[in-house]
Amino acid sequence: MDGPPLPERAIRAPRGGAVRLADVAAAAEVSIALASRVLNADPAVRASAETRKRVLDAAAALGYVPNIAAKSLRIRRNGLIGLVVHDLSSPIHLELMQGARAEAAAHNSFLVLGDVDELLNDDDVFKVLVNGNRVDGLIVQGGHAEFGQRIADIARVLPTVVVNAPPRAEQDRVSSVAPDEPAATRMLTEHLLSLGHTRIGLVSGPRDSMTGRLREEGIVSALGAVGLELRPEDRVHADWSANGGRAGFIELASRWRAGTERPTALIAGNSLIGIGVLGAAARQGLSIPQDVSVAAVHDTWINEHLVPSLTTVSLPLREMGVVAVRQLLTAPDAASRIVLSEPPPVLHARDSTAPPA
Amino acid sequence: MDGPPLPERAIRAPRGGAVRLADVAAAAEVSIALASRVLNADPAVRASAETRKRVLDAAAALGYVPNIAAKSLRIRRNGLIGLVVHDLSSPIHLELMQGARAEAAAHNSFLVLGDVDELLNDDDVFKVLVNGNRVDGLIVQGGHAEFGQRIADIARVLPTVVVNAPPRAEQDRVSSVAPDEPAATRMLTEHLLSLGHTRIGLVSGPRDSMTGRLREEGIVSALGAVGLELRPEDRVHADWSANGGRAGFIELASRWRAGTERPTALIAGNSLIGIGVLGAAARQGLSIPQDVSVAAVHDTWINEHLVPSLTTVSLPLREMGVVAVRQLLTAPDAASRIVLSEPPPVLHARDSTAPPA
DNA sequence: CTGAAAGCGCTTACAG
DNA sequence: CTGAAAGCGCTTACAG
User: According to the UniProt entry, where is the signal peptide (chains A, B) (predicted)?
Assistant: First the structure.
């Protein structure tokens, strides 16, 4: 009444070289359940140190690595975090990515790369990433005004943290990690003031960018503190890119009339814009910093190699990535809004800023 | 004799809003197996068009997305590809990443970010990524001489393709996708020759880089075709970075004696090196292109914004990413060695190159 | 505290 | 061709 004999080898033998928990348990002569508990450091386990060691040794000897699919299916988590960026080519966000990646790795998690546009426009990608249990949470690069509501919708089903941008009003369940923007531009402005500049212009980010607004606030407040102001005619909006910076500078300079006063220094909304400003100014025959000083937000490796090297203020981008991941891993359901004021912005004074002529 | 009643709701009801295949099958009034087959477009299915539609409609109506962990556990694949890069901050490799990411998405796969150093030095990461069924395959950024054997070892257990570098001798089971390096530098050299330069120098990559060697080959062959040569004293090695380029230029220029001949043009091993060369030359008081022309391999968005803008040749980086993913997805076990000669390199002549003075 | 058993949600031989 | 059932490899209530 035993039925046909079971094909034991097919059940027991590791397939394709994959060692299973059952193999470890057999080698250590304990039950699968106990092996699982020891390996997962279950505090309730009271097995003797000797037994525990037998399990650990067996796992090591066999090179056991848990099957992640099986584990995920059981515990309903998969150790993956979606990192959804808008523009992979920006060196600014890479530092953030590095920080996030390293922190995830430290927690045995990995980062899955997503694209903002694809996430928001491609329904398949959206479904898989958001509803498909693909990732345990999402880190979304902020600053996309049009998508505020969509991100809020995503956050309802999946822990989500927006990085590098303050959350919008409708995103009440969205966590965020943002740097202290006004502090950065305040520092830049004070640097220019200390050099003797009294009229400072701004090539800002896009008109509807909250980040851009906060950076402007820092400038206005630093100027206000010494009785100066940011004149409307000294400010233009631009894309967060070198092309934007170029266009912004050209627009700004077109307002300058020979013989009349104009700003002696410009702040760029970010260092990509700064690169564009530097290039455009040179092509218009202006010398930097003799004719105009230029300073920008965000420091990357490029800035010191530019001619002239670009003065910047660095924000804790890497830390933002770290904190975002930590937030997702430790408090996925808390809608926390973190403004990183530590470490504080750091000024990198370089050749692009000098006293006015 | 029925035992206690089963808690039906706990079994049937979707948990946490997750719709299961069983829910779709129930809604469409078919078996789970048939629902699975219809949804996976099993060609053996002969169900009436009407039945098929019922399944598809039910899935759509319920917003069904397969549980990826369950599916992975069954089919022993998880739709993830590890992208292991060395230096996330290089804009050069980002284009490759973008191509890989997009191609993966087109195949319902995602990219998991890894770090070369971590993979090779951190045993935990290695085990999880390589042995843990985390990813279906690995794309590794090439050019790490020290790790040739290690990558060969990885490829024995996991489909692996090295991108942007030719495979090393010991990597017999490793696939690779590399651009046509000599074609790129040949094009750059011919551009400089056509401007009238007859003595051309090279700030190459690291001494042991195969990529660097191939790029040098292109220069040598283009020079040889017109009876010229690359003089040993006109070549230095450098890291693949702006800092490397700076150091390389300084070393090269230190060999130049006033009143004697020196190269009138320099080729940079890549555009990061090129940025460093540009900056260092300017800081030594040399005008580019008047005193020396500079051209580099790889085009990125930065180059046109530099002052002067940097002449480059672009290689099909994005396509490399695409092909690498396609290779992994369609022929994971073939150890293919692809040299992408299509699309061919494209010259971007800019302000950093001009006829010699 | 530990083990046997159930079950996570799928796919796919297998039998009909 | 289709359905019932087994099973992928884990974790964890549950009972002992």
Answer: none
Which residues are B111's β-sheet partners? A113, B81
Interface test with B, best of A305, A306, A307, A317 (most B CBs within 10 A): A305
Q: Decide the pairing of beta strands B137-141 and B110-115.
A: unpaired
Q: Do B69 and A78 touch (CB under 8 A)?
A: yes
B38's enclosing H/E stretch is: helix B32-39
Residues of B in contact with A129 (CB under 8 A): 110
Q: Are A27 and A19 in contact (CB under 8 A)?
A: no
Place of tokens 């206000």: A224
DSSP string, B105-152: HHTT-EEEEEEHHHHHH-HHHHIIIIISS--SEEEEE---GGGHHHHH
Q: Which residues contact B323 (CB under 8 A, 6 or more apart)?
A: B177, B338, B340
Distance CA A57, CA A64 (A): 10
Chain C, protein-covered positions (CB within 7 A): 1-5, 7-13
CA A154 to C1' D6, whole Å = 37
- Mean pLDDT on B175-189: 95
How many whole angstroms separate alpha carbon B144 and alpha carbon B168? 10
* Lowest mean per-residue pLDDT among A260-274, B93-107, B262-276: B93-107
The upper half-sphere exposure of residue B26, i.e. CA atoms within 13 Å in the direction of its Cβ, equals 10
Average pLDDT for chain B? 88
Give the pair of three-digit tokens for residue A201: 């212009």
Choose the weakest-confidence range: A71-75, B147-151, B158-162, B237-241.
B147-151
Q: How close is the nearest chain A Cα to the Cα of B222, in Å?
A: 30
Picking from B88, B112, B90, the residue whose alpha carbon sits closest to that of residue B100 is: B112
Nearest nt to B46, CA vs C1'?
D1
Q: How far is CA B204 from the centre of its chain?
A: 21
Alpha helices in chain A (DSSP H): 8-12, 21-28, 32-39, 49-62, 68-75, 91-106, 116-121, 123-126, 148-157, 181-195, 210-225, 242-254, 271-283, 317-330
Lowest mean pLDDT among A56-60, B7-11, B142-146, B218-222: B7-11
Q: Write the burial class of residue B341 (CB in 10 Å: 0-12 exposed, 13-18 middle, 19+ buried).
A: exposed
Q: Of A72-86, A233-247, B130-144, which gets the smallest average pLDDT?
A: B130-144
CA of B113 to C1' of D7 (A): 32
- Of B17, B31, B32, the C-alpha closest to B64 is B17
- How far is A73 from B113, CA to CA, in rounded Å? 22
pTM of the model: 0.88
Q: Is B178 helix (H, G, I), strand (E, B) or coil?
A: strand
Q: Which one has a higher pLDDT value, A27 or B332? A: A27
Helix, strand, coil percentages (3-state) for chain B, rounded to 5, are 45, 15, 40
Mean pLDDT rounded to a whole number for chain A = 88
Cβ–Cβ below 8 Å for B305 and A279: yes
Mode of pairing for the β-strands spanning B265-268 and B200-204: parallel
